[in-house]
Design a protein that fits this description.
By secondary structure, this protein is of the alpha/beta class. It has nine helices and ten strands. The structure holds 2'-deoxycytidine-5'-monophosphate.
Length: 237
């Protein structure tokens, strides 16, 4: 039997990393975890409880006190799409709203939030056989991941992709709003003190300026097979 590995896919927001991660999970039968959805779910909970607001920003002490109440799970719907559950409630649609996108980066910059979610994420990977996407998966969550991918794309390509997804999901926004949000999140995600977005030295860089998904998958699946073979060889040698 093949050894199970961990695949870490990191990159800028809306670089297409979750589409790639989901497709690879489907091909390999691995579990897929969207770590960004977890930061979004914490932001939504904080917003509902008054610890996060557009006017006053984030109340770190209040949000930290709420963390133990937050349970995040994932489930698949009938169409096979992953849904995020916040304390049992399906919040998949709500966490993609621009309001959450605008508030999530300062929440994700807080040490207690990261510590809490990284702990949950490490737990999901205990059995390996997992594909996780995010910002710090190859650097902090799974530094020992056998396969690390870093996805890049221009801000304009990412804004078009995000806008298309939002409109498909029934969330309203303009191209300018989405581009502004992406540039602002890039700035916060790369300059924050806590686990800033950066490429792990051994990660493969993937430039994803609208490459068809089938082509991406051919490349990624081949690398995946190589990494599994290496893990098997290491186990047997
Ligand atoms: O991938 P996304 O856009 O859904 O992520 C939402 C936010 O969460 C993003 O601004 C950065 C943050 N994030 C993070 O800090 N670390 C992760 N592993 C995943 C997301």
């Amino acid at each position: 039997m093949d050894k199970k590995i961990i695949v870490a896919i990191d990159g800028y927001s809306s670089s297409g990393k979750s589409t790639m991660a989901k497709a690879l999970a489907r091909l390999t039968g691995y579990i897929y975890v969207d770590s960004g959805a977890m930061y979004r779910a914490v932001t939504l909970y904080g917003l509902r409880k008054g610890a996060v607001s557009a006017e006053r920003g984030v109340d770190e002490a209040a949000l930290t006190a709420l963390l133990p109440e937050i349970d995040i799970q994932f489930r698949k719907d009938e169409a096979g799409n992953q849904r995020t559950l916040l304390n049992g409630e399906d919040v998949e649609h709500e966490i993609r709203d621009l309001e959450i996108s605008n508030l999530v980066s300062p929440v994700a910059a807080l040490h207690p939030v990261r510590e809490y979610l990284v702990g949950l994420q490490k737990g999901y990977g205990r059995e390996r056989g997992i594909i996780m996407d995010g910002r710090d998966i190859g650097t902090v969550v799974f530094p020992d991941a056998e396969m690390k991918v870093f996805v890049e794309a221009t801000a304009e390509v990412r804004a078009h992709r995000r806008l298309r997804e939002m409109l498909e999901e029934g969330n309203e926004a303009t191209y300018e709003e989405v581009l502004h949000n992406i540039l602002e999140r890039d700035r916060i995600d790369t300059t924050r003190k806590e686990s800033p977005l950066r490429k792990a030295p051994e990660a493969i860089t993937f430039y994803n300026n609208e490459i068809p998904l089938e082509e991406q998958m051919m490349v990624l699946h081949k690398i995946f097979d190589e990494r599994v073979a290496q893990a098997n060889a290491k186990d047997n040698g």
